[in-house]
């Protein structure tokens, strides 16, 4: 058997990557976790999490990250900050090229996550202070409040309907004069008294002092601008997998997400994917953690079989 640097390398340090690292370390695999910036991923910009089991009072994203990192390191997980540039996956030894070196490994778990498309109107100022990309996560914080939703596809419309369970009013801003969502969702949204449609319009700005207070929109046909008073803004104009380094080496769906089976195995033996980077029907911390446990278990058995 050819020599390798590690039995397993995990790419990505969000909840999925850290959970995979925890399981792999406890299994006494020679494992390395690589994270481009700092452990936590999208969770780091989450102000408050109240739907992750085991924390009835809720906790912040950084707090959860600290707990995940501490637990993984307790079992010896090494975490290094590097950016993965490309993968070579042919054969039993996989090669990971980073900005500074090449790493040889028997198996890989890709847990690099995904990022929401942005409007480029200063969203970073209101991250965790009124701006969100997840109604399931943050909708309950806007009970009896006014919010703005942006988008016209299935996700935007379905999530806007979900928001009406909490918000007193939902402005749905869409750049066209008709929705792209499926007809049944359109019918439900159009029949919902809490949703007011802002057609042919785009968001041009966000404003507020301590938190979001208003959203500026512009009508593309009339060029008229208006300000919507709102305490929350949910953006659903698409999500992009953080998988550029994968190239064409793995099978992906039409949107670029990595395709896996129930064991989190990809189209290449020895390569697994977990969390938001894979084609999953739900992108939540709880599902990322579940994916990662399965991926680590599958990787462990793959490595054992390879060595034997």
Could you give a short description of this structure?
With 308 residues, the protein is of the alpha/beta class. The chain has helices spanning 15-26, 61-74, 135-138, 154-163, 183-190, 285-307; strands at residues 6-11, 31-35, 79-81, 84-88, 94-98, 102-110, 114-116, 131-132, 146-150, 169-173, 195-198, 201-207, 214-219, 225-229, 232-235, 239-241, 271-273. It has two domains: 6-115 and 239-307, FAD/NAD(P)-binding domain; 118-235, FAD/NAD(P)-binding domain, CATH 3.50.50.
**What value does the average pLDDT take?**
94
What is the number of strand segments? 17
Q: How many whole angstroms does the radius of gyration measure?
A: 21 Å
CATH class of the largest domain: Alpha Beta
| Main sheet properties | 7 strands, mixed
CATH topology of the largest domain: the name is FAD/NAD(P)-binding domain
* Shape call: elongated
User: What class would the helix/strand composition place it in?
Assistant: alpha/beta
CATH level-two architecture of the largest domain: 3-Layer(bba) Sandwich
**What is the number of helices?**
6
Give the strand content.
Answer: 25-35%
CATH homologous superfamily grouping of the largest domain: FAD/NAD(P)-binding domain
What is the distance, rounded to the nearest whole angstrom, between the alpha carbons of the first and last residues?
10 Å
| DSSP helix fraction | 10-25%
Q: Provide the succession of SSEs.
A: EHEHEEEEEEHEHEHEEEEEEEH
Poorly predicted regions:
none
Number of domains: 2
């Amino acid at each position: 058997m050819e020599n390798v640097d590690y039995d397993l390398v995990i790419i990505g340090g969000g909840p999925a990557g850290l959970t995979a690292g925890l399981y792999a370390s406890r299994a006494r695999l020679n494992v390395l976790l690589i994270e481009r910036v700092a452990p936590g991923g999208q969770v780091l910009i989450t102000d408050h999490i109240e739907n992750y089991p085991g924390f009835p009072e809720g906790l912040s994203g950084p707090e959860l990250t600290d707990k995940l990192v501490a637990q993984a390191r307790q079992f010896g997980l090494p975490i290094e900050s590097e950016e993965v540039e490309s993968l070579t996956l042919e054969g039993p030894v996989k090669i990971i090229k980073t900005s500074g070196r090449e790493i040889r490994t028997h198996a890989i778990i890709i847990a690099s996550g995904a990022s929401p498309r942005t409007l480029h109107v200063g969203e970073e100022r209101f991250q965790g202070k009124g701006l969100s990309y997840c109604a399931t996560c943050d909708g309950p914080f806007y009970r009896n409040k006014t919010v703005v939703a942006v988008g016209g596809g299935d996700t935007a419309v379905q999530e806007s309907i979900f928001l009406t369970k909490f918000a007193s009013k939902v402005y749905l801003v869409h750049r066209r004069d008709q929705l792209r969502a499926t007809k049944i969702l359109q019918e439900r949204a159009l029949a919902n008294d809490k949703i007011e449609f802002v057609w042919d319009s785009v968001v041009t700005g966000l404003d507020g002092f301590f938190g979001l207070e208003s959203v500026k929109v512009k009508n593309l046909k009339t060029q008229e601008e208006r300000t919507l008073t709102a305490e929350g803004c949910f953006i659903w104009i698409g999500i992009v997998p953080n998988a550029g380094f994968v190239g064409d080496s793995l099978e992906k769906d039409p949107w670029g997400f990595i395709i896996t089976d129930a064991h989190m195995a990809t189209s290449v033996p020895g390569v697994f994917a977990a969390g938001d980077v894979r084609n999953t029907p739900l992108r939540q911390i709880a599902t990322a953690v579940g994916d990662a446990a399965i991926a680590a278990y599958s990787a462990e058995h793959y490595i054992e079989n390879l060595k034997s």
